[in-house]
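Forum > Structural Biology > Help requests

Title: Can anyone predict the 3D structure of Plastocyanin?

Hi all, first post here. I have the sequence for Plastocyanin but no way to get a structure on my laptop. I'd be grateful if someone could post the structure tokens.
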Amino acid sequence: MINFKTSAPLWACMVAAVLLAAVLLPSAAILTPNSAYAFHTFGGTYVVTIVPGAAQKESLYHYYPPKIAVPRHTEVAWFENDPEQPHTVTSGSPGSPDSGQLFNSGVMSYLYFFQYEFDKAGDYSYYCQIHPWRTGLVHVSDQSTLGKNFEFSTGTGSTWSLSEFDRNLLKFEPTTVSLEETTPASYYFTMANSDTKQTVYSHYFPSTNNLQVELISGSNYNQTTTYGPDRASTIHSNPGAFHVQGNFAPGNYTISVVLYSVNGKLSDPLPLDQFKFQLTQ
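Reply #1:
Sure, ran it for you. Structure tokens for Plastocyanin below:
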């Protein structure tokens, strides 16, 4: 289980940081996608892209990201962004008897999408029936912990092994404040090294009834970058996952989350929680 711990002095510092950041960074919640990223208008809260040139065996990526770790009940949407070839998203592996039994997109043309909600823990492989060398993996975890104001779940459970997954989707759901998917809300997220007591990342995020933040770790990231969210939908109001990539070293970390505002009004009192998790090599 993911451990939960509350510390009054840390809470006091965190609330002060939230209020100070609100004054100094009024536009912090506005995130600019990078050159390889764009909003998608459809359902699904986590986007996997079928990249241009995906039909070529020598392509660096076919599905991107090719391997993800998400909490249970995450809805993944595959977006067909290859103008040269049609593709499929088919569960299982080529030639396996269960191929396509769990999900199968059928033939997807350019700019089409397919989505599927993963409601059970496990490893789910998939491939393209037209180009069977194109494969991907979705790892689903059902571990979660209940804090005083939030339920916290991750794609890897209590320990994130960097050698197994370079990315990990975190999800925070308020439990003491009733929010609809159409209710605008903002959250303040802080990640600190528990051993050094140093804050390694903090940011405001606009969302609705939950906050989803994917951490992406890599030694080639010389600075921490935030992008997203994954979609701007006219069907659902939740924006989906945000992404934070940086060089997150192995160690013990504390995640702090605050429900800062609801419907444009400052939450009073501020619902906040702290959760601990471990990164291993």
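The first strand starts at residue 46 and ends at 50. The chain has a mean pLDDT of 85.
Shout if anything looks off.
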